[in-house]
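Residues and backbone
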Amino acid sequence: MSAMPELPQISYADEAFPQQFMASLQHYGFAAVTEHPLDAQRIHRIYRDWHQFFASGQADDFEMDPLRQDGYFSLQQAEHAKGFTDRDFKEYFQFYPWGRCPATLRDDLAAHFVATVNLGAVLLNMIADRLPETITHAFSEPLGHMIQQSEQSMLRVLHYPPVPADNAVMRAAPHEDINLLTLLPAADGPGLELRLRNGEWVSVPNKPGQLIVNIGDMLQEVTGGYLPSTTHRVATPEGAAQTTSRMSLPLFLHPRPEVVLSTRYTAARYLSQRLDELGVV
């Protein structure tokens, strides 16, 4: 059997990065970015410290708020992908700067949040600069402005526990993200895969220092489908890998609730509809 093809990597330091970044998004819906400005040591500390936090049992003290959507989601409260009934096999903590967080873990998480949102704004402007004028002319406001003063952008600390032997659970079933862009530093284990337009699954390389960026459904909506979001999943490991947990740290970049995405949706209406579909409200 031939090896699954991998998503190509592009360097943020390359002069041609803006063009390469847009080309990767258009072809894959994803981009694998190296030499980016996010702090790798801080990301490592977050993975280490939060892995210990999940193992300690203290997460239960921060049980998720179903209205505010901040705090800890247990295995029993985790979302399920649209079209699926079984919940993903994961636990996670949703962090907003205005939300709850263990005091000893807040500083690194807050600093990473700010740095990632700032980088996301740069990437949104790169995208906007390379969209056809017919699309940008229809925007309710410039793409980069849509996230300014947004309190909806969210950082999720994800823990995928070891998968019990002979268990058919999915770590994350095939899905698309809700938001404008997702920025995901390299996880501490493999498993992320994306589906090409022809239905073929492609492995997303899990390499140190890498940043994965992918299109969300809101960016698809606001561009009228010019930049479609891509279905992706976290594959369940086989054999000995089942006994290994996996940490991940996606930042979901969201517009303000009142932003008009299209003639069909404001950001608030779109988010509410999708959270209902995911079974978390």
Remarks:
- The first strand starts at residue 9 and ends at 11.
